[in-house]
Amino acid sequence: MNRFVLAALLLSAPALAAPPVAPAPVSAKARAIHESALIIDTHVDTPLRMLEEGFDLGSQPPNGQGHLDLSRARAGNLGAAFFSIWVEPKEFAGQYTHRALRLIDTVLNAVEKYPDQMVLALSSKDIVAARAGKQKKLATLLGVEGGHAIQNDLGVLRDFYRLGVRYMTLTWSNTNEWADSSGDITDAAVKHHDGLTDFGRDVVREMNRLGMLVDISHVSDKTFFDTLKVTRAPVIASHSSARALTDHPRNMTDEMLKAVAANGGVVMVNYFSAFIDDTYRQSYAAMAPERNAALEALTAKHQGADAATKFRVEGAASWEWAAKVRRPPLESLIDHIDHIAKVAGVDHVGMGSDFDGINSTPQSIDSVADLPRITEALLARGYTREQLHKFLGGNLLRVFREAERVSRELRTAPSARR
């Protein structure tokens, strides 16, 4: 990045509210519970940084940039993470699968580079095994974010599974050829399907057969309910929060939360400020016209720059715009976890941070190293050690095991397809 560009961005930003008081140290009781848990995050967007910026997971980023690296993962006792394989649908039109393969390759290369700290996990047993012994490696999993990446080909879906992909989000913010998204459901210019098409139902069935978790984050409400009618295995929402608290279409209604519970699935709470705090959401949305115009102008200005420079410049600008709105308190995030636990039940809530894919997090959650603060805040709400272990990873592990059981059953059935 041109340092003068960044300086201009900083100077143009209005004075921010005084920074919050530094949070108190995590209590010994909360830290002990946190360290004894198997902590699973179902959605981190770090692969894009790794590919575009050349970010090295084993490095110490300057000035604490980004949310996730191996050092801070250890500090936060992160046990397993699903690395998001997200393909921008407009920029890579016609090349979705190739782009996804490049991102997968980036993650697999990191696993090969740091075999003493990372291991590719292909099953629920692999997650548990990665944390056994003194070494406690980061169980590294892959999740494709957006069904457009398979380019309408079940063979590609199967190939993704063979490469290690263990969940797929049926849509991203874009409606694809077989499933409607919440991101453009009100756009009359987009061809919608009233939920899932017949091929979309085949995708869900094949994911069940493979043992690939069906992720319903980002989908339209109709797609969500269509999916629950088809799936034989529990679903996950890899990074979604509660719409009753923050009125965003990416979040889930209480009716949807109850349906996930009835299905046996789990909702993994997203940490993005605009998804967990309605005041932040409204303020951030009000800036959208000015923000989008500024970001488009910045992109045009650096059109000829290399990919890493463009990524850094645009990322820095995005963070600066987000910082113009005061970050919500940690309690906003805890409210969503608490709400989902009360509506769906303590067996149906987990953690899907969206780290490195979001530009604002609640106060005191600056990176994966701060995860113990979430445990302490939930402990203060009266949750037990057993319940906290479920929230932090146990519920996801249960769903993964059930999806594997369903897969074994379907693969051995007389009518099992190739």
Q: What order do the helices and strands come in, and which of them pair?
A:
Layout (H helix, E strand, L loop, with lengths): L2 H10 L15 H9 L2 E6 L1 H8 L16 H6 L2 E9 L9 H18 L4 E3 L3 H7 L7 E8 L8 H10 L1 E5 L28 H13 L2 E3 L5 H10 L4 E3 L16 H10 L2 E4 L3 H4 L1 H9 L1 H14 L5 H16 L7 H14 L5 E3 L19 H10 L4 H28 L6
Parallel strand pairs: 1-2, 2-4, 3-4, 4-5, 5-6, 6-7, 7-8, 8-9
Helix pairs in contact: 1-14, 2-16, 3-5, 7-8, 9-10, 13-14
Roughly what is the average pLDDT, rounded to an integer?
93
CATH architecture of the largest domain: Alpha-Beta Barrel
- The percent range for strand residues is 5-15%
Q: Shape from CA axes?
A: globular
User: If you consult CATH, what is the topology of the largest domain?
Assistant: TIM Barrel
| Low-confidence blocks of residues | 1-18
What is the helix fraction of residues, given as a range?
A: 40-55%
Described by strand count, sense and barrel closure, the largest sheet is: 9 strands, parallel
Q: How many helical stretches? A: 17
Please report the total strand number as a whole number.
9
Notable traits:
single chain, 418 residues, alpha/beta, TIM Barrel, 2 domains, nine-stranded parallel beta sheet, 47% helix, 11% strand, globular, disordered N terminus, metallodipeptidase activity, Metal_Hydrolase
